[in-house]
Amino acid sequence: MVEKHDPQMKNHQMSTWLDDLKQKLNHMDDAEIIEHRIGTGASVHLLFIKTLIDQERLNEAILQPLQRSAGHSVSSCIINSKVSEVISIEDAGQKIMQGFILLYDSVNDQWLGVQLENPLGRAVEPSQTETVIYGAKDSFSEQIDKNITMLRRRLPITTLKTESFTIGSLSKTKVVLMYIDGIINPEFVSLAREKIESVDFDQFLDSAQLAAFIEDHNHTVFPQFLQTDRPDACAYALGEGKLTLLVSNSPFALICPITLFHLFQSPEDYFLRWPVASFLRLMRYGSFIISLTMIPFYVALTTFHYQMVPLPILFVLLESRSKLPFTPFVEGIFMIVTLEIIKEASLRMPTKTSQTLGVIGGIVIGQAAVEAGFASKVLIVLMGISAIAFFLVPNYQMTKSMVLLQVLLLILASFLGLPGIVIGLIGILAHIHALTSLGQPYLAPLSPFYGKDWIDLFIRGPLIWMKTRPNNLKPLQKWRQEKMKK
Amino acid sequence: MIPYKHYGLLAIVSLMWIVGCSSPYVENNMIEEIAPVVFWSIDKGTEGKFKISTLVPPLIKEKKRFLSKEVDLLKQGGKEFNLIYYRELKQGQLRMLLINEELAKEGGIEKLINTILVDPDISMRVYLLIVRGDFDEYIKNQLTKQENQDYFLYRMLKHYEEHNQGEMSIVNIHQFMKMLYSPLKDPIVPVFHADKNNFNYVGTAFFRNDKEVMVTQDVSDEIFQLLDNDHFLKVLAIPKLSISLGRVRSNIRMKLSSDYSSLSLHVGLKGRIEEYQGEKNIQSEEPLEHLIHEIEVYLEEQTSELLKSMQRLKVDPLEVGTHSLKPFSKELTEEQWLKYWGNMKINVDFDIKIQPLINVERLS
User: Fold this and answer.
1) What is the ipTM of this complex?
2) CA separation for the pair B167, B165 (Å, rounded)
3) CA separation (Å) from B173 to A246, A306, A474?
4) What is the pTM of this model?
């Protein structure tokens, strides 16, 4: 079916477009221009980029019907649902680059665009970044339509709304804003809409880039959007009253508004027994604090507050540090940087090589550094605990940010000792307190205080007790239960 | 928009947190540049000086060195040690203050203890010991045999302090000062005997103000452990009666007469016979009862003697004086109490309940 546009907009000299388009497609080897004669003797021009279209479907949906056609209208013999009239030469250029086939119907002096995009893409695969033992194994792919399908299958309701935007002057990236109408606070939707519309940049290759443009605070290390490739996490967030942004060619969706505590929640939390899930969640918070403060704490103690160290531990510390040429601070920085180098290198290398690197790295930092006198045994142990504790935080972006915070605390600890760490932590806390995600407080429900939301904060309370949606999201429908809605 | 009142709250909490943690003005001493001191031993020097000594460093893989100086002031000693030793001596981990008995008998140890106590670097975990004999000689001799002798001493004290084991009267500096300033309790400190090869627990020294006036030893010290210190003894050996009681627990009831002329001390003891080398057949009830009665009489005599010696010297480490406190009445002054205490008639009554570890033939 042909979408009709305003006749006023129509360029009356459409026959001249062919030359203009040929000009545009100059020096493009994969551009094809075919002249096809139909039954009436009239000619139809087909313009397309063969690397962008599905050539088999071109044959089935356009060429064969045209061959057999006896009618006068080209549009009537095209077997495709996505047929639209081309209204300007710019529109024609854009469509051809999006995988459309342009047809010129000389009889009716009409240009048509048929979408026959090549459905190139990988199959639905398990998530690589957020793996779970129990729970759904599918993850988003680079094809945005497939991603929307995955969400729609999880939430088969008419109130699940999608709004599309195109951003990026070069990349023409499609962004889809998804939310459940009637649950989400409309303020979030209008704010997100406004922010996406105001984006002005040439290329968007991933959703993280979009996040950088629409986040409230650009200069913080804390992510204000939850990037996930799990459709179940997105569906759960939508149901809670959050919104999701899907970006074409990116397998990661953005969820917002979020709070700091969302960064410590794993999709698996909701699949495990609640006491187990709560314990694991508390472990994550604990390991976050440990990984941030353990090395700075070591530096503070060995530099300023040896009085606090119990005598048996002091013996160990003294022995381990007695022959080192470096100050605790230099030693700490050295180890943190070394560990980061090894982590980065193992990420960039092929899987098999990275295992070797891990072993060599472990021996180098674990054994040789001690023997060479670069680091003390105690620090190596603390470093190991701290490094492992980092990985307990499920959000990868947060894990990366934490290294910076650790170094900040380390510097403060080396100058001021424990008060330095305390000042650093207060600074971080004050900073988090001032952050917002899509205009919502980042430290909620701790501050501002929402008592009822605590059931899913530090612990993951029993699901049967979670009868209301989080208050800090101010949802239109507070109750999760059908009976309570009325 | 975040309400600004939260920032105020955050600032207050933060300030409290910082103040609570530690002083923001800290010294920058790296751990490899310091040598924590585990003990100070203070002895009488020549011409009214102090002789202070210690071992440095407490490092495991470094040869220990014995340092000793004659000085007028304690802090001066610390400073002079620093000038002859490559690492800075720090008292942050000072765990034991050993005071020579002669010095303790002269009095004036309060000033020494105060010097340690007001030092913000030193924790309250410093144990106080009175040493009879030459501790320096002992520690020097032990250095060749047992390198970490200072640390082992500390571990021994710590071991006997924990869980009220009822073997030694372990006192830390904080407890000593509390007892010193309490009007109705006199301080106690454990006494150790040191010679070239040995360092043994002797008993408990009683102090009047900050001057040692007496030392209880052997059975008297064990009774003191039962009366006041731990109310528990792992073993109470009475050689005179050829019996060892084990796991003895005491329950003390004191009653002062209204005119403070007499004190009734009732001691309920529970324990078990762990060893008996005497003649009696304790498998029969009658000789067993007789033995228990003998123990009671023996302990009553010993306790009376101990209390009498306390009265004679006008020391009250048992806190008997606190029983004079009554609601809505004026508290006795220390002088008044000691006057009453010195002349008080004391009735001691022991009630012993003993579990024999063997079957006893009951009388029908």
Assistant:
1) 0.79
2) 6
3) 68, 20, 59
4) 0.81
